[in-house]
Design a protein that fits this description.
about 20% helix, disordered C terminus, 9 helices, 11-stranded mixed beta sheet, alpha/beta
Length: about 450
């Protein structure tokens, strides 16, 4: 590890019994179960009940656990949330969501309000034969065998409290099934919106993407708030890629500043497949992104890119795991963060190289730009290598804007604030430009410039 810089941690005090503050979940589940009638005897509900037991046994994580050492979830665990068990789609119109669409891109759009599919706001184009795109809840009713062959196989409840909680209240989300040899030209846009329902509430979308052999597809997953309510997004996505399949998965989180977001993505890669992930976080009060990729067959490749931009007292935590389970696989990782105000950033990137994973090529880089003296970061890139014929590197750097570069731009007549913005934007653009969906990339550019202007105003205040 090179260039690692650590600053004192501003611990968030935890309540003595924070782990056990789960009564709201248990009581909500009991009321929901009583309203189900015959659905309470289905196999899916058996999975829910097992997940709830797991959550009740574990409770919320604390900073005593290594995986949560730098991130206290006390702000989440100290609250009682009302699960969003029904849709409020009739209150939202097409004009309300225009600003969140991807320009004029002719993509299939699945819109979810508080985690529930909204057919009136969605637009699914004609798909090639055999492709399934739509609501997970609908496919659970009509294509039970197809969904259950994959659901909860990658993201298992016993792996963490938040995955268990999501599974316990599993209802809806996006389902995408692409059979062998199919290439989707346009991206699939999954748009998740939180409504103005009374809070605090929790939405628990569950996404499942299954691609066969020799497929090509792009998925854009975005999260926004329609109002300033306090709520909690706890989302889990499972992605399975067959041999020789290419997938790009772009996730943008731009929810309001008083929300919580925990996103968990599990990916399984077949032989000679290629997976690209771009995780961009702008909004939220406390945000945790968990991305796990398992390279399960020879010749597979993954690229994980991430960008976090925070200000005020935001906390954005990125945890990634790349598991090289088979030989001759490649991984690339670049995560960047821009921290202003008194915000905090966390990065923990793990790369495992299993005993039989010879000829592994893995590169990991984490870079953090601190724009203020009050911003702090904890970064922990790590390698665990059990093979002997590998090429692996990792490193982390933390720093501020280069004053010589600022001086150079000012000597060319550029004002100080503009010079700082130019350098900051260039730092972030390294990740933004890796997004291949052009309308999303343009949207990210505009959002980044707006956030930089917002930071200047806050500093002036």
């Amino acid at each position: 590890m090179t260039g690692l810089k650590r600053k004192p941690i501003r611990w968030v005090p935890e309540m003595p019994d924070i782990r056990r503050n789960i009564d709201w979940a248990l009581s909500s589940f009991e009321r929901w179960e009583k309203s189900m009638n015959g659905d309470s005897r289905t196999g899916l509900h058996g999975i829910r009940k097992a997940a709830l037991r797991t959550f009740a046994e574990r409770g919320f994580p604390t900073t005593k656990e290594e995986e949560w050492r730098f991130t206290s979830v006390a702000p989440i665990a100290s609250m009682s949330f009302t699960p969003a068990l029904e849709s409020m789609s009739t209150k939202v119109t097409a004009s309300d969501i225009t600003r969140y669409l991807l320009g004029n891109l002719e993509s299939s759009r699945l819109v979810f309000l508080d985690g529930h599919f909204s057919p009136d706001l969605s637009n699914v184009s004609r798909m090639p034969k055999g492709v399934h795109v739509g609501s997970l809840a609908e496919h659970l009713r009509n294509d039970t065998a197809l969904v259950h062959n994959y659901l909860t196989r990658q993201a298992r409840p016993e792996e963490g409290a938040f995955t268990a909680l999501n599974t316990a209240f599993l209802q809806d989300g996006a389902f995408l099934y692409v059979p062998d040899g199919v290439e989707l030209g346009d991206p699939i846009h999954l748009l998740f919106l939180a409504s103005d329902r009374e809070g605090p509430f929790i939405q628990t979308p569950r996404n499942l993407v299954v691609a066969g052999e020799g497929c090509r597809l792009s998925i854009v997953e975005t999260y926004h708030s329609l109002a300033g309510r306090k709520y909690f997004t706890n989302v889990v996505s499972e992605i399975i890629a067959g041999s020789r399949t290419v997938i790009e998965h772009d996730k943008l989180q731009n929810e309001s500043g008083n929300t919580f977001h925990v996103g968990t993505t599990h990916v399984s890669l077949g032989g000679q497949s290629n997976f690209v992930s771009n995780t961009i976080s702008f909004g939220g009060s406390l945000v945790r992104n968990n991305v796990t990729v398992v390279l399960e067959a020879e010749g597979s490749e993954c690229t994980l890119n991430g960008l976090s931009v925070s200000t005020g007292v935001q906390l954005i935590d990125n945890h990634t795991t790349i598991d090289h389970a088979k030989p001759n696989c490649t991984s690339h990782e670049l995560y960047k963060a821009i921290l202003d105000g008194r915000s905090r950033g966390v990065f923990n990137g793990k790369i495992f190289v299993r005993k039989d994973a010879q000829k592994t090529d893995a590169k990991q880089t984490n870079k953090t730009l601190l724009l203020s003296d009050g911003a702090t970061v904890d970064t922990k890139p790590q390698l665990e290598i059990f093979a002997d014929d590998v090429k692996c590197t990792h490193g982390a750097t933390v720093g501020q804007l280069d004053e010589e570069q600022v001086f150079y731009l000012r000597s060319r007549g550029i004002p100080l604030e503009a010079a700082r913005d130019i350098l900051t934007f260039a730092f972030a653009s390294d990740v933004v430009n890796r997004v291949h969906v052009e309308p999303l990339r343009g949207q990210l550019d505009a959002m980044l410039r707006a956030r930089l202007r917002q930071g200047r105003v806050a500093e002036g205040d």
